[in-house]
Amino acid sequence: xxxxxxxxxxxxxxxxxxxxxxxxxxxxxxxxxxxxxxxxxxxxxxxxxxxxxxxxxxxxxxxxxxxxxxxxxxxxxxxxxxxxxxxxxxxxxxxxxxxxxxxxxxxxxxxxxxxxxxxxxxxxxxxxxxxxxxxxxxxxxxxxxxxxxxxxxxxxxxxxxxxxxxxxxxxxxxxxxxxxxxxxxxxxxxxxxxxxxxxxxxxxxxxxxxxxxxxxxxxxxxxxxxxxxxxxxxxxxxxxxxxxxxxxxxxxxxx
Amino acid sequence: xxxxxxxxxxxxxxxxxxxxxxxxxxxxxxxxxxxxxxxxxxxxxxxxxxxxxxxxxxxxxxxxxxxxxxxxxxxxxxxxxxxxxxxxxxxxxxxxxxxxxxxxxxxxxxxxxxxxxxxxxxxxxxxxxxxxxxxxxxxxxxxxxxxxxxxxxxxxxxxxxxxxxxxxxxxxxxxxxxxxxxxxxxxxxxxxxxxxxxxxxxxxxxxxxxxxxxxxxxxxxxxxxxxxxxxxxxxxxxxxxxxxxxxxxxxxxxxxxxxxxxxxxxxxxxxxxxxxxxxxxxxxxxxxxxxxxxxxxxxxxxxxxxxxxxxxxxxxxxxxxxxxxxxxxxxxxxxxxxxxxxxxxxxxxxxxxxxx
Lengths: 255, 356
Hints:
The complex is a heterodimer of chains A (255) and B (356). Chain A is α/β, with parallel strands linked by helices. Chain A has one domain: Rossmann fold, CATH 3.40.50.300. Chain A has helices at residues 42-49, 72-77, 95-101, 111-116, 119-138, 154-166, 184-200, 212-218, 236-240, 243-250, and strands at 2-13, 16-27, 31-35, 57-62, 65-66, 80-82, 172-176, 204-208, 221-226, 229-234. A six-stranded mixed sheet of chain A has the order 6-7-8-3-9-10, with helices on both faces. In chain A, strands 2-1-4-5 form a four-stranded antiparallel sheet, covered by helices on one side. In chain A, helix 3 (95-101) packs parallel to helix 6 (154-166). Chain B is an all-alpha fold and 356 residues long. Chain B has a single domain, classed as ABC transporter involved in vitamin B12 uptake, BtuC, CATH 1.10.3470. Chain B has helices at 2-22, 28-53, 61-80, 94-112, 114-117, 126-144, 159-168, 173-194, 196-206, 208-213, 218-244, 254-267, 272-288, 292-298, 300-305, 313-331, 342-345; strands at 155-156, 246-247. The radius of gyration of chain B is 21 Å and the shape is globular. The two termini of chain B are 13 Å apart. Chains A and B meet through helix 2, helix 3, helix 4 and helix 5 of A and helix 8, helix 9, helix 10 and helix 11 of B.
């Protein structure tokens, strides 16, 4: 059974057709890439999947549950986590707190418990803390647990953001341009990190990326969109030699 | 030991205060000032929950105080007073029923806060500020038009309850309840805001979109946060009404809200200990500057130059206090403590106490 099914997804903002007839079917464990020139509608597709926009037409089904009408936090609790193109951590809270807050949906205690602090509260809080610390350990971020993200270098902030997304324990991880703004050494680390996450957690990854190096070394299947429409899809080798893709990226030379 | 040191210190202070009040070493005036410090601590810490921790901008906090004050006053008069018919409960029950009355006032204030929290799902900052001012005026105008509770003439008769408590067991009851509710307020806020649940509030402040995407139910957290804040302000209002023994809608107008805001900004946004300290400092200043003698000394250079000018302390303090605010904002724009707690500013204090 497929994990994420998107069928005929269309999004219009007034007269602008940002996404048209986008369809995809992702099986569990896949690592798919989404590429396209600037303004092609890639981030819009991510915003639609994560419930931030409601699609004009088309359906999104996550593990058998249609996401239409759900709020973003409800979509997240279905097992979809995402990162942002420009890092959106909570910069004035410690890295540990950043990871703890992302577990809000399975916190399992009410506001009364948080004030009275009975047994249930202590157990749950303990559990949240354990999960957060395990994850920091796994992502080799333990030494930064008490740091504020704003004081960390950009590459580490990326890592923290991915860790925060992972703390939701997602089935599907959406990475929005994870390599944006990283230097080449950081990009190497990122490729290793994403590969490692994909190998060690039972997870499906859908990523937007501009850097062909990242996409070709990670993704098994690539979709290319331009002006909201899917213009090509296939394995990295196919895509690199596809004339429509080259035209979309480099322009038409028949002037 | 250090886990409880602060609590023990606080409890000791409270006991000493109560003893001093019981044996009339503190006169009624000092007692009243201490009680207003408590009320102001409740107001500033509860407003800090919204303006500081959640980063919303509300400036109608007195509306919730007003609702709490009126609801608890009416209940108090119904149960123990003679103003609205015979007392419904025997006077000996006043001691037990009084805190419940104050809490009910808080609950009603919390319900009124839904008027603010629902618009806050869609809007924030300046637009929400206007909505909160609107709510403040709504509450005041509604009460001014309710003739059965006095309308714009105000409402009194709550002192019956206070006297009923005194008759049952002689002691400084109001002082006791103010201290108890102040401790309760700080306790609730501190526990809420340090739990993973309450940290969602901070997440909303720093990046609402990221909070929603990372599974924080932002609408629910906002509503809860507004309700806690308004509920505690309502409790403060109930106590205020019983200390003064008289409430008037106009005493909860935008000026009162501004006072609460001033305390929050003075103490530092999002700092609980800052809000407490600024409430103490602010109330203290208000009282100290009421003294004509101190004001004369402060203004001696000016009156020397203009010998005909005889400034009255009651009026001129409203020049001095805003001026002080302007100066603080100029030289320390983040407030007394910034967004840090006292133990972050002075790490050595951590050796002596942890506050949970």
